[in-house]
Amino acid sequence: MFSYKQYQKIINLIKESGKQATFHEALKLDNYIIMRHDVEFSVERAYKLACFEAENNFYSIYFFQVSNNSYNLLSKKNLETIEKIKKMGHEVGLHFHLNGLEQVDEIKRAIEKEIEIMNCKLSFCVDTFSIHRPTANVLSKNIKIPGLLNAYQNEFFSYVDDIETQVPEVKYLSDARHQWNYGLFPDKDTLFKNKKIQILTHPYSWTETGYDNLNNFRTLYHEKCQELLETFDSECKHFKEIKDEI
Ligand SMILES: [Zn+2]
Questions:
Q1: Model-level pTM?
Q2: I need a labelling partner for 64 at 20 to 30 A (CA). Which of 36, 88, 121, 233 fits?
């Protein structure tokens, strides 16, 4: 479950379809599959997935949060990791946390500010964003900002009021909450019979071994603890004295 082996099957099918596209390419296409990753908790897991994709000659887009409480996008280590992901051949975008904002104008301004922060700190420019847990209200507004692409704008995502009765033009497959939602899995049938497809995966869900929801969080928790211990270790001399006791 959510192992790299399983992920490899998905990317092999996408490659076989010949339809893989970036958001920019998809703007001009009637037939595409976009692979997008929203990075929620672990830049490290995103990096590992990016390496795995590159080993398989597959390139996608990774969206990072600027205002995340689990990782600091602006730490030297994380910035270097994101640069490496970009150098591998992947694209990088902003995963925008609404943080309670509801007004479209406010949301647009906040997105532009966060893009500016990323552009100040990275050696390349970011021009694509995805919204973290977008509300129905935000999705229905089809937010467009000049010079930027929104993963949820109407060319890449079809907003429907009722998923049970309306057929969206763009098929949207998501592994949110560590499960493929609406019973939709990126199998051959789904990937080949639909013209426009956007797939969202969350790198924290995917590991070499593959875990169920509980064990996935357990392993993630241990990785984050280790990261914190390493930070204490590099920052505090008085931590070294008690390190073995923790
Ligand atoms: Zn998110």
A1: 0.96
A2: 233
